[in-house]
Fold these 3 entries.
Entry 1:
Amino acid sequence: MFYRTIRLLPALVASLVVTAAGAQTSGEAAINAKVANTLKKLTLEEKVAMIHANSGFTSPGVSRLGIRELVMSDGPHGVRREQGRYWGDATPSADSGTYLPVGVCLAATWNPQLGYDFGSVLGSEAAYRGKDVILGPGINIIRSPLNGRNFEYQSEDPYLVSRLVVGYIKGVQDQGVSACVKHYAANSIETRRNFVNVLMSERALREIYLPGFKAAVQEGGVNTLMGAYNKFRGQYCTHNDYLINQVLKKEWGFKGLVMSDWGAVHNTVEALYYGCDLEMGTDLSMLPKPDYTKFFLGDTVVALVKSGRVAETVIDEKVRRILYVMYKTNVVDGQRKKGAYNTKAHQQTAEKIAEEGIVLLKNDNKTLPLTNAVKSVAVIGYNADRKQSMGGGSSQVRAFYEITPLQGLKNVAGNQLNITYSKGYNIYRGAQADAALIQEAAEAARKADVAIVVGGWTHGYDYNVWADNAYDAEDVDKPDMKMPFGQDELIKAVLEANPKTVVVLMGGGAIDVSQWAAGTPAIVQAWYPGTEGGTALAKILLGQVNPSGKLPMTFPKKLEDGPAEKLGMYAKDSINMYYTDDIYVGYRYFDTKQVEPQFAFGHGLSYTSFAFGNLTVTKSGKGATVSFTVKNTGKVAGAEVAQLYVRQEVSALPRPYKELKGFQKIALQPGEEKKVTIALKEDAFSYYDDNKNAWVLEPGVFDIMVGSSSRTTQLAGKINL
Ligand code: BGC
């Protein structure tokens, strides 16, 4: 009986697959039929109305046919504004939502399941609020620590991005609404984002900057995509023939709609022909009564078609894509999921992501977790008592509530700890070390068993997203990687007062810790960890949660150590920005050029220890199967992210010293051992040859490196392919 069941399984699975695929096709066919039918009924004016916004966050339907507007909301970290048609709308009473940890924190979990859970919360809250499209995930490659929007993005590594983005999108879209992957493509800085013309090799584009988007389309099935503000090879990304028409729509088969970033359309004819389906944006100068018919894809288009200069089929193609998304997500007809809002489950998901995303960077002498012997803690630093949800630009979230690090410690520690708080520094751009604040903080530290400094970057003033103290924010980049507001002086003084000092860094990525890192026993990277971030952080500091986050980007020692800075982050001569760092982004550069980072890509410590062993690498088709064991050799339960890197020993084109091609997060009880198997397909060994304009698998010997970070690979094997 058992045998029969097993034997029948493959056939059963195959029939299920066929049914599922068949159902999908007939579903698609039904949608296409509805779209075609509706399209036939529309006048030219109605069609043109549909291809541009009619408010800050909606585009028109056709009321005559009972087709309502398409309603959007910024993600990527929460659903904004209940009825928000504009950014500055008055606040309706229930205008708050679950504030999820930021994108880099999600990436630092290295847990694709949490990507799905993250998306599910967003999708569910969007559905509840009657939103059709969540403007996220943001997945631009983190190329330089200076980019103001790194916090919204995920990683310097295209493979890690690809694995997380798929779950995120499915999570959103399984709730019946659309995700919008953004900003396509090569939007790796904010300053002058509306002007810069990014130039890079085809190889860098294919190997580094596109894989996340490709996975979003082909594996995630994303319904909508947003073009970036910048130019790419001379054309604005939002209407870029190569990126949108050739690659996205033709090569990858994207069926959904391409919308512009807000105000990113610059030219009617280019938008018409180079792939933009929907022009979004709010011209603030037009408020309170903006005239959307004056948009590039407004009345001008009607005139162009009527005079015979543009074929109506060009408009039809855009409307077809918009209607396709509308029918697919039951905007026009059908049953929508109801969704839910600010539920306990959503808050728990936010906390879980923070718990798994916070990274323990350094922990000498078992400084953390704080033991029962610690009776008093001096909490220091502006970020300890600061809410972050309303900072950063378009990703701001009006949080239902937000537990700060200070509040979290108080809640979790209860009577166990005597907690004092001092601000330590001021947060306005250009603020220097404040002697009085430093002295107060140092005194508090001296009197306490342990000092915890919570500092790092800031998002900007609450409710003023483009404030002059914004470092992690839209439209700005960081001037350098140095700690702002005199925090170096503060930390050094606190360390002198109490060597048992823990530094918690908040922010979207690397910051220069070189002045004090060596003398600081424990350092924690907390990102902006969302609504329950303070709870998650406190649980980690107190040992109720064992940290398992890993850095999704390299932390250089000094800004100038990094490739983008060395190799031309800002073009001085013109608007042209040459990505001469090419494929050597992040650890690909640091490892290949043997530059020692402060903290390596993939690095993150635990309160337990893990042993890797029993590596086998076997050939399988044009790829390989890699298996190994991971054992928890310590005393507490924990999770390790086993990372698999591949290197080709000799190749016609130069290749990075190692590249991430697989990973798995494994939860283990003390003493427990698990076997991990990772299948590497042909693409894990291939590179993009821009002489041939194709991915090639060049035969040769490949090193397989497996371990706990990009710089700590405990296991090594080889395979000849
Ligand atoms: C941002 C987008 C955002 C849009 C709407 C733009 O400025 O670049 O990411 O979705 O505004 O708020």
Entry 2:
Amino acid sequence: MSLHEQLSEASAFIKNATRHKAIRAVVVLGSGLGEFADTLPGADVIEYAKIPHFQTSTVQGHAGRLVIGEIAPGFPIACMQGRFHFYEGHGMPQVVFPLRALRQLGADFLLVTNAAGGIQPELTPGSLMLIEDHLNLMGDNPLKGANHDFLGPRFPDMSEAYNSSLREIACSVASENGIELKSGVYAGISGPMYETPAEIRMLRTLGADAVGMSTVPEVIAANHMGMKTLGISCITNQAAGLSPYKLSHQEVMETAEHAKQRFVTLIQGTLLRLAAQPVLSSQVNS
Ligand code: HPA
């Protein structure tokens, strides 16, 4: 079965399983940040396991379900509670499959979140970082192989992978709510082990401010499809070698839990602003 057919089956299934039509934005919720979806009134919940051609998520803290609801009247959003990671053994096409399926339902914005290790000294645990740009150090790419012309062009532009208008909106929502929002470059590595101190020194030299094991595939696929993207990292720990402590998934989950309230306010405020700005929405693909 072709990718086109698989995406059609998945998107038809999702469409039938929710009352909310014409999805406007996809929100990908990273480790410990899934609770945002629980704030959506009147949401429909669809288990990934039921959706044709979706994989199942294996990571603790990732629920593996789609929550679709309206953040504002006429602005349905699809929240991915849990995502598929490259380190779980999924191929890049599987990692980006849900996003591609939701794009078929109309989504033209991607709000992607993650937990990340802070490399830049000011990015201490609990900080929120607006992703300015990324380094793809995963050693693979979701666009590899024959191009799927129905999704986007062979050689997509990545010079504004993280949309500047969306970044401005997020910054103003943060300042209106007294939330400190730092910014920086996210390095995406494959994982699943945390880095060595020498690798962190290398990443710093390369221009990375934070490091994590996700986001880059989705952002590449989103740009390929002409979607406008916003990325926010929750800094859950200082990267390896920058503190005397060992890194653990437990620490990552606990710190994300502490940042949750600020994070929910920021995502909610940004989406509400988008819902109220039809001009920005209509610029997509222009
Ligand atoms: N490295 C990679 N991924 C991560 C980290 C880290 O330090 N923290 C949370 N995700």
Entry 3:
Amino acid sequence: MSLIVQKYGGTSMGSVERIQNVARRVAKWHAAGHQVVVVPSAMSGETNRLLGLAKEISPQPDSRELDMLASTGEQASSSLLAMALMSQGVPARSYAGWQVPVRTDSSFTKARIKSIDDARIRGDLDSGRVVIVTGFQGIDDDGNITTLGRGGSDTSAVAVAAAMGAAECLIFTDVDGVYTTDPRVVPEARRMAVISFEEMMEMASLGSKVLQIRSVEFAGKYRVPVRVLSSLTDPLIPLEEEMTSGTLITFEEDQKMEAAVVSGIAFSRDEAKVTLLAVPDTPGVAYSILGPVAAANIDVDMILQNQSVQGTTDFSFTVNRNDFARTLDLLNNQIGPAVGAGQIVSDDKVCKVSIVGIGMRSHVGVASLMFRTLSEEGINIQMISTSEIKTSVIINDKYMELAVRALHKAFGLDTESGQAANP
Ligand code: ADP
Ligand code: ASP
Ligand code: MG
């Protein structure tokens, strides 16, 4: 008998029939003698619907109230799942984040989990119940409901698994694992049976929405075995088959296929670029620009400063598209005048495309194949950033899918033999 945490995403919870199927799958694990904690997302489309209502009321709604609103989606799906389980004869009880409690900081709409009290959950498990904990939400020290950022139910699930020392955290979703890239963009993408923790971190942080980045961080910090698998298979497939399906995030690097240098392509459309032209090239300028941006709680991603010509230089950086309006406002009204920038230009029609692979550490020529491939497609690279195991470029977002498909092919990811031979 093991303690298993199972997370079901929005599509998996998307209708009454799907919720009943989730209940059948959970009932199968329960009947096999496992203790099961389920973490559901809101039914698909529900979080967007709620946030859309808020936007109709106000262009910039209050973030505390946004969390009050958005958290209701998970409360509804959790109670429906509890009812579905009970109607199938399985004792079950659902809890909202505040009832557990899942304690977070007070950063509304992007709160971080600080601790989870598992006493109530354990009590129910020990009395034979399936426990359902709402994904995506928690409570801060002042008793306010918080949410964990889009895709945050993944993080709720891994955090519950970490807090309870679960044997495995199963992330059930609408694809049957982690692919070489998003299979919706490249139909030839292939599922990986295992992916290293480091590669999964990069893929998630560079935009692969299959897992929220913080869930991967939690998995790494607490060594939680995480498996991504499909919720759309027959719910009654044998447990042994289910337990070896999908993609396992592995902490053992040597389990990785040896030869593949690039193992995945990630992309993100959530990007925006701003440039201050002709700022003085003097000590302290980067700080004068980025200090107020950080103080406004805006995350900066890529930064590019050119060599100075006649004592001035151009300074560009990228931010999440959600923060674009606020960033521009800050630059135009505060930072630009303060540093004496010549002009401020901006572009929110950019995207980031990245190649990822732990094999890149020991191979040269990987980035140059990326640049050649993009040039052959006539795609202009606006910014580049590299780390040990990834190279990212910023390009015009109308070329995003073309770039992803071309790179997927160029690195041989369409076939197993092609991938093994990539440079
Ligand atoms: P859920 O609602 O279950 O959390 P998400 O939509 O958040 O599901 O994540 C699953 C989706 O992630 C898939 O439908 C797929 O389009 C997308 N995705 C992006 N990159 C990848 C990848 N590398 N492998 C698999 N899926 C990916
Ligand atoms: N329902 C939330 C969202 O749509 C959380 C999640 O699905 O993980 O972002
Ligand atoms: Mg998700």
